[in-house]
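FAQ

Q: What does a record look like?
A: Structure on top, sequence underneath. For example:
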């Protein structure tokens, strides 16, 4: 199946270190070679890049590894296709507009017999189960709230929707509106929170280290969420099956 990577911070931060290790799983240290994508929230805009080629062969992915784009919320995905052809329109993350802002979604898993009806505003462009369920989530959020709700209200609604979807298969996902980042696991997902005093981290998938103390300020906070740990010398916390978490300003909120 696919793999997920998310980052949530209290100040714009680049994801080059994490993405460098993550991209190795698209053909080198693992077999997720059916496309990839990444989305960066930047103030009121969104930088969205996808490619149906493997991340280790994509010039676009090479640009991301070398260009320190800074963002407070990032979602990345490397694909191992289960439903839908290897096409650009089937590459995650997917983007939709709701309440005047971009929403970004990426999914790891395989959902069976979950194709609920969709109204005109939210329709898939490709033919994956992932894009269809994202459109349905957007539709249900729109039906549940008349205007942009609080992070707490959104978390309660998303937790209820996840419970309705999860019986249909594996449903690990990342979702962000640029304000917060939600993560849900039925199988594998974990996270690490980085804060002062920062230390050195070493990637699992490549012989590369970084000393975060040299790259950050004492007030910085960063949360990284990924399918399996990216570094070998940090304390990663695993999600429980069926658990939905929300991160804001680099901190896990207990809602």
């Amino acid at each position: 199946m696919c793999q997920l990577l998310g980052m949530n911070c209290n100040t714009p931060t680049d994801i080059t270190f994490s993405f460098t290790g993550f991209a190795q799983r698209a053909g080198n240290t693992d077999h997720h070679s059916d496309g990839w994508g990444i989305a960066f929230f930047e103030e009121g805009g969104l930088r969205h890049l996808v490619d149906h080629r493997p991340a280790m062969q994509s010039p676009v992915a090479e640009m991301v590894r070398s260009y320190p784009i800074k963002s407070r919320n990032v979602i990345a995905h490397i694909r191992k296709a289960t439903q839908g052809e290897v096409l650009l329109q089937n590459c995650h993350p997917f983007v939709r507009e709701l309440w005047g802002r971009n929403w970004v979604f990426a999914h790891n898993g395989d959902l069976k017999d979950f194709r609920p009806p969709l109204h005109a505003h939210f329709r898939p462009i490709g033919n994956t189960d992932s894009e269809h369920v994202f459109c349905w989530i957007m539709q249900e959020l729109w039906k549940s709230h008349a205007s942009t709700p609080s992070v707490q209200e959104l978390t309660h609604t998303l937790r209820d929707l996840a419970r309705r979807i999860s019986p249909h298969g594996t449903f690990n996902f990342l979702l962000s509106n640029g304000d917060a980042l939600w993560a849900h696991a039925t199988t594998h997902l974990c996270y690490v929170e980085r804060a002062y005093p920062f230390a050195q981290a070493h990637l699992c998938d490549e012989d590369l280290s970084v000393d975060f103390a040299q790259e950050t300020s004492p007030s910085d906070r960063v949360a990284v969420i990924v399918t399996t740990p990216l570094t070998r010398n940090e304390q990663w916390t695993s999600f429980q099956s069926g658990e939905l978490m929300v991160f804001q300003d680099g901190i896990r909120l207990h809602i």
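Q: Is there anything notable about this one?
A: The longest strand covers residues 3-14.
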